[in-house]
Amino acid sequence: MLSLKDGPPEPESGEQGKDAAMPDQASLHECTLDQDLALRPHEELPKVVKNLVATCGTEACFDHISPVPLPSHDAVVQIIALARRVLFPGYFDGKKIEQVNLEYHLGTELMHLFELVADQITWAVRHDCFRHELLCSHCSDRGNRAALAFVQSLPEIRRLLAMDVQAALEGDPATGSPDEIIFSYPGLLAVTVYRLAHRMRHLKVPLLPRMMSEYAHAKTGIDIHPGAEIGESFFIDHGTGVVIGETAVLGQRVRLYQGVTLGAMSLPRGQLEDLRGVKRHPTIEDEVTIYSGATILGGETVVGTRSVIGGNVWLTESVPPDTKVFLKKPELVYVEPRDR
Question: How many domains does the chain have?
Answer without folding.
Answer: 2
